[in-house]
Specification:
single chain, 601 residues, alpha/beta, Rossmann fold, Dihydrodipicolinate Reductase, domain 2, 8-stranded mixed β-sheet, 6-stranded parallel β-sheet, 39% helix, NAD(P)-bd_dom_sf, TAT_signal, oxidoreductase, nucleotide binding, glucose-fructose oxidoreductase activity
Length: 601
């Protein structure tokens, strides 16, 4: 978050030494011994077992950007992907081959062939049924497949509840991406259907399964940073018009000839000449911008033809991916519920744009608070809950905020800047530490959250401020611990009857207690662990075996994000009602009553 290299070195060693004190036996014994024996770190750390000989047979509904991340996080010892469903050729191709746009995207989205070791797409398709390639076929056909026991849903937000409820009605267990749903009423409907059908419903807030965050919670609950009283969280990005990650290029029938194949470089050159003759350089520039996807395809074709051996094969694979992205023009987005819309400034959005850029629209997405803020408000709730008995999730008291669009034009609904402030009950707020009677209304913890586009300075993370120290979580991969506000001192950590203590000292040492296994740079973001544990809970049915992000927990995260959007839209402070957090209550912040369970099951 804006620490100097020296401060980072001090803070990281402080954190490692603190974790080493509280988790030394685990890290040196159980984890290292388990890893040597072939067990996963997540299973050992979070106390769930292996299911290698009885893998969960899973169908994946939605294999786009986030679906690709989840595919990359699968452990074949736990999950047997037997089916996938989507509506876009580009998504199907990346599901098998991974995302070849860059080395970074390939690392994040490896594809099923890499995960399971299949050499060709043909071999992969012998093991994985594909639903949605045929005209009129939908993921509902996947839900009828008796070989599918459970589904992972990575569809756009507005479809989470629809797909999850249909899946549970079909007796499939569900892991759905966050947010849980597009409205609180939908969340309650999902939770009620899970209860009625007996299906296990989990939501993918992966910080619940991050060893880095769990160790941070351990330090907070031990009292190492004192009484928690403030949290600052942010997620800043460089997105600007023309380089917006939420506005990927759109396919078009203009990119193909009468046979349905992409235009050749020669055919596009002819279009450029015609544009130049009709409108000059500005018309040519506009044409090139509109046809950016096709031009990139041509550039990759040239690279392929100029390369040899392995390089030629690599570029051939990239060409195949780009061709499938162009082929998305065949997808009838309107047939799947996507709509056209004319914005106040006259901008016309097509169903295809709503499908591919769904995060930009209120009807299909939830903006910055749903996509980014929900992760960090979830983490903040976890930190605050760590100081409560039993670590029961603490609900916020109020939210106020503002949002605006100062950088992007009127080609979207969502804000590009959001700023929110939450009040949480701190230690001593409630009588006897339990929700109910208020003992001291001044005992509050304030959480501030902001997310902006246009400048990525500081990146993303959380700063947890206590009366005795400061804990910083940076980009889900690093943690730093400091005495009070001093980032220049090392911390001596002692454990025993006197409890944790922090003092400055001049020499280092002790940082190796984490060994290679739990050093922050080697800790996953939690995707693999959340999927493993979900599968293990299904294989080991017991009321005690529940995912960490149950419907109650996931709904609370959704309430926080969605109520924030209302507060910003209406420019007012909103107090959270306890009834909103009760799945059985019909009260919602939107004021819309959930449907009765009898209508859903």
């Amino acid at each position: 978050m804006n620490l100097t290299p020296e401060e980072k070195a001090i803070g990281k060693q402080n954190f490692q030494e603190a974790v080493g004190t509280s988790r030394r036996d685990f890290l040196k014994g159980t984890v290292l011994g388990g890893v040597a024996g072939g067990a996963t770190i997540g299973a050992l750390y979070f106390n769930y077992g292996a299911i290698k000989n009885d893998r969960l047979r899973v169908g994946i509904i939605g294999t786009g950007d986030e679906g690709g991340v989840l595919i990359s996080s699968l452990n074949p010892d736990y999950i047997d992907v037997v089916a996938i469903a989507d509506i876009r050729p580009y998504s199907f191709h990346r599901a098998f081959h991974g995302d070849l746009n860059s080395d970074g995207t390939k690392a994040a989205r490896k594809g099923l062939m890499d995960v399971y070791g299949w050499k060709t797409e043909e071999e992969a398709r012998e093991n994985v049924k594909v639903y949605g390639e045929k005209e009129g076929e939908t993921y509902e056909e996947l839900l009828k497949d008796p070989n599918v026991e459970a589904v992972i849903i990575a569809l756009p937000l507005w479809l989470h509840d629809v797909a999850a409820i249909k899946a549970m009605r079909a007796k499939k267990h569900v892991l759905t991406e966050k947010l849980m749903a597009h409205s609180v009423g939908q969340c309650k409907e999902m939770g009620r259907v899970a209860d009625a059908t007996g299906m296990l419903l989990a939501t993918g807030h992966q910080r619940h399964y991050s060893i880095l965050y769990d160790n941070a919670v351990d330090q907070i609950s031990s009292g190492l940073i004192g009484e928690l009283h403030s949290i600052r969280a942010q997620w800043n990005r460089d997105n600007l018009p023309g380089r917006d990650s939420w506005s990927p290029d759109l396919p078009s029938a203009k990119f193909v000839d009468q046979s349905g194949e992409p235009l050749t470089p020669e055919e596009f050159s002819a279009l450029e000449k015609a544009a130049s003759k009709a409108g000059g350089p500005e018309a040519v520039a506009a044409l090139r911008d509109e046809f950016h996807m096709l031009r990139e395809y041509h550039a990759w074709l040239k690279k392929r033809d100029q390369s040899k051996g392995a390089d030629a094969e690599k570029w051939a694979e990239k060409v195949a991916q780009k061709r499938n992205q162009i082929m998305d023009y065949r997808t009838d987005a309107a047939a799947f519920g996507y709509e056209d819309k004319t914005l106040p400034n006259g901008y016309k959005r097509s169903p295809m744009e709503e499908l591919i850029r769904w995060r930009l629209w209120d009807r299909t997405g939830g903006g910055l608070m749903a996509e980014l803020g929900s992760h960090q408000l979830d983490a903040s709730s976890i930190f605050i809950s760590s100081q409560r008995e039993g670590h029961q999730k603490v609900m916020p008291l109020s939210v106020s905020g503002m949002g605006h669009r100062s950088l992007f034009p009127l080609d979207r609904d969502v804000d590009d800047h959001v700023y929110t402030m939450f009040e949480y009950p701190g230690l001593g707020y409630y009588e006897n530490g339990k929700d109910g009677e208020v003992a001291d209304p001044n005992k509050k913890i304030v959480v501030t959250y902001s997310s902006i586009n246009g400048n990525g300075y500081g990146g993303y993370g959380e700063v947890v401020l206590g009366t005795e120290g400061t804990l910083i979580l940076d980009r889900e991969k690093d943690a730093y611990l400091f005495k009070k506000s001093d980032t220049q001192t090392k911390i001596e950590v002692t454990a025993g009857s006197g409890g944790p203590a922090m003092d400055t000292y001049e020499t280092g040492g002790g940082g190796a207690a984490l060994a290679e296994v739990a050093a922050p740079e080697n800790i996953s973001r939690g995707y693999q662990e959340e999927i493993e544990h979900w599968a293990w809970c299904i294989r080991n049915p017991d009321p005690a075996n529940q995912p960490k992000c149950t419907p109650k927990v996931a709904m609370a995260d959704a309430i926080i994000a969605l109520t924030s959007n209302i507060a910003m839209r209406e420019n007012r402070r909103i107090e959270f009602k306890p009834e909103w957090f009760d799945i059985e209550s019909d009260e919602t912040p939107e004021g819309k009553t959930p449907r009765k369970t009898s209508e859903l099951v």
